[in-house]
Amino acid sequence: xxxxxxxxxxxxxxxxxxxxxxxxxxxxxxxxxxxxxxxxxxxxxxxxxxxxxxxxxxxxxxxxxxxxxxxxxxxxxxxxxxxxxxxxxxxxxxxxxxxxxxxxxxxxxxxxxxxxxxxxxxxxxxxxxxxxxxxxxxxxxxxxxxxxxxxxxxxxxxxxxxxxxxxxxxxxxxxxxxxxxxxxxxxxxxxxxxxxxxxxxxxxxxxxxxxxxxxxxxxxxxxxxxxxxxxxxxxxxxxxxxxxxxxxxxxxxxxxxxxxxxxxxxxxxxxxxxxxxxxxxxxxxxxxxxxxxxxxxxxxxxxxxx
Length: 306
Fold this sequence. Notes:
The protein is mostly helical. It has helices at residues 3-14, 17-20, 24-30, 37-49, 52-59, 64-77, 82-91, 95-107, 115-129, 134-146, 162-174, 179-186, 196-203, 206-216, 222-234, 240-243, 252-262, 271-276, 284-296. It starts with a helix and ends in a 10-residue tail after the last helix.
């Protein structure tokens, strides 16, 4: 360490903890350097030992590294209620904070012994379950088992996220409930539960359930067609000739799902069929799908020769 670095360290050491806070962003930036860890350690100690208000103030900082540190310390110090943690997980766009706050909110459920704590834990769990982010909903669904509410995982069997669906199946099985009959019942009303088609493919069997999914590929609702194709892919029941017509589906999402399912079969799709769909007058989703499949079949050098 040179003399200037020693002077800088001495100056930082003499600063009261509260005066480090306005420098938090700079300290964390410089902490990436070899000698920068010392100032960071002082900042973290000030946040852990100092007034809670200092930590809360940094939680709204514009710098991502700074507010993430503040939230981590707030969780360590127990400065946020379960409801506050769940609300942050459900509303913020930072996936690191989503995970941190969702996990912390779920951890409070085990300690919710008295009536007020149980009520707060239930409110936090309900907030997680209604989150837009799949990772947060998944945390909430998994926590239903700990909360003694496994039956409430049923609606999430048809969630749009495969992760959430998997968590729902796990919770129900742990509660002694077989999800497969539930999926079959949900697929009898596919318009009300589009995601059930994907879930049926994820846990069904080819002999009994493939026919249901193929029927749903023709459903008038695009969301049902999309999830039916996803289910066929999960069930390993993709039949090239039967699925190729879905490349012309009016829904771009369905076209993308069909493309993903057909990629391993791309070499078997007639080249002329794909090249026709690269024409400028075709919808963009159809053109992109055809180009992807041509590349997958090793024919990408011929795409422009129509």
